[in-house]
Amino acid sequence: MSLDLALIGGTGLYRFPGLEDTVTRRVETPFGVPSDAIVSGRVGRHHIAFLARHGSDHTLAPHRVNYRANVWALHSLGARRVVGINAVGGIRDDMGPRALVVPDQIIDYTHDRLTSFSDVEGCKVEHVDFSEPYAAGLRGALVASARRAGIAIVDGGCYGATQGPRLETRAEIARMRRDGCDLVGMTGMPEAVLARELGVDYACLALVANWAAGCGDAAEISLEEIFANLDEATARVPAIVAELLGA
Length: 247
Ligand code: HPA
Fold this sequence. Notes:
The chain has helices at about 65-75, 135-150, 170-180, 190-195, 225-235, 235-245, and strands at about 5-10, 20-25, 40-45, 45-50, 80-90, 100, 105-110, 155, 160, 185, 200-210. It has about 250 residues and is an alpha/beta fold. It has a single domain (about 5-245), classed as Rossmann fold. Strands 1, 2, 3, 4, 5, 6, 7, 8, 9, 10 and 11 form an 11-stranded mixed sheet that branches. β3 and β4 form a beta hairpin. α2 (about 135-150) crosses α6 (about 235-245). The longest helix has 13 residues, at about 135-150. Hypoxanthine binds near residues 87, 88 and 162.
């Protein structure tokens, strides 16, 4: 079975609704085991695979996710296009809670994560081009799919990847804004660069869960609000994916 698309679901998206004829596989990779079993199945006549980045019961914090195993496993099952779905905080004025954004740039503030497949003894070192961190064709297709589905989406923006699992301070977000970040999330890297190393087309569909620290009116970020906003934003994902597949 060839795969038309793979999805990596983030916070709030632990299974993909509407998948038919599902097969669940526990995959092992040279880099360890993925966050959870990979569920593949049909959406219309298209085959997709789904992996819950934090595990289906959300037990893996962003810094503990085995990004290498996740990307390797999806690639080994035949995925050549991957959409990472990521909960984020909004920094830019038009990226408030519940907005959907397809970013086009990344600034990586994470640390102590395994960011390459090229650190195995004796392997050939790869210096991949990452000027454009996301696959332009897949990004454009995501934006066009949302618009065809009548769903508002912001095309472009810079994703700042932080270490987590704590949220950021106001000063950190102010610095990120000065750096040019429009969104902040904890899981966008190294997922994107690992996909690039394997030659997989990768794009991010960012779901804004909250204003980043110091950006909205609230003095604190409420977790309840994060989950309510994510539920609402997540509900729009299947229609975008269906359009993306042309199902
Ligand atoms: N910061 C980092 N990651 C996030 C946030 C945030 O405010 N909201 C959802 N994921």
